[in-house]
Amino acid sequence: MENSNNIAVVAVSGGLDSCVSAAIANQNYKLAFAHINYGQRTEKRELKAFHDIADHYGVEKRLVIDYTHLAEIGGSSLTDKSIEVTKADLSNKEIPSSYVPFRNANILSACVSWAEVLNASKIFIGAVYEDSSGYPDCRPSFFEAFEKMIDEGTKPSTKIRIETPIINLSKAEIVKEGIRLKAPLHLTWSCYQNEDEACGVCDSCALRLRGFQISGIQDPIKYKVRPEYR
């Protein structure tokens, strides 16, 4: 165990939000990157993005966990290929088919275990409140509750706080923050269904594209189609 509380465990999916969160954490902390494979459609491409971002920041401590149980549980179009990945509807207020039941709790549990071993003081996760109408585990209240659980379930000497630095930002603001911090946005991957060229029409692609379009910045990754989402 390192005798340091200046370590931050960053949950890095390989997407835009986690990349910018990593860039923010990089300003003040030594980084340890955690990534979860859970049988998602773009698992290989997301893992590549994770390692590319880690290489960019020179991160040596990397943890890749296979949560195969999430795919076995199913219930999401990301893990069950019999469920269609629906096209983007940015006005939708219902829980989308891409919701992976309680995924963030699973991710945070692994991060907490590792953070306690590393004597890390923070866990960074790129949750965004803009997405919370669809994803209940992206709400600020969820992270506040989980932090209380950390206090209850770890050693008395363990003090770990969850940082959600972009949770109240729009996607356009996240893009601008990434550019300001020189985050490697060109290495990220957000598409829910393709691993070669981003589809441009799933919820994740739509939110990302709209963020770039509103910010007036060209998204550096390749898309099959680039609809206007403004």
Characterization of this structure:
With 230 residues, this protein is α/β, with parallel strands linked by helices. The chain has a single domain, classed as Rossmann fold (3-Layer(aba) Sandwich). It is built from seven helices and five strands; from the N terminus they run βαβαβααβαβαα. It has a five-stranded parallel beta sheet with strand order 3-2-1-4-5, sandwiched between helices. Helix 1 crosses helix 6 and helix 6 crosses helix 7. It is globular and about 50 Å long. The relative contact order is 0.19. The model has no long low-confidence stretch (mean pLDDT 94).
Compose a concise summary of this entry:
The chain is of the alpha/beta class. It contains seven helices and five strands; from the N terminus they run βαβαβααβαβαα.
Give the SSE map.
Elements: E1 7-11, H1 16-25, E2 30-37, H2 43-57, E3 61-66, H3 68-73, H4 103-118, E4 122-125, H5 140-153, E5 161-163, H6 171-180, H7 203-215
Parallel strand pairs: 1-2, 1-4, 2-3, 4-5
Helix content: 25-40%
Count the E strands. Answer: 5
Number of domains: 1
Strand residues, percent: 5-15%
- Looking across the biggest beta sheet, what order are the strands in? 3-2-1-4-5
Please give the radius of gyration in angstroms: 17 Å
**Broad structural category:** alpha/beta
CATH class wording: Alpha Beta
Q: Provide the CATH topology.
A: Rossmann fold
- Give the SSE order as H and E letters: EHEHEHHEHEHH
Overall, the morphology is globular
Question: Gap between N and C termini, in Å?
Answer: 48 Å
Poorly predicted parts: none
Overall CATH architecture: 3-Layer(aba) Sandwich
Mean pLDDT: 94
Number of helices: 7
Main pleated-sheet profile: 5 strands, parallel
State the CATH superfamily name: HUPs
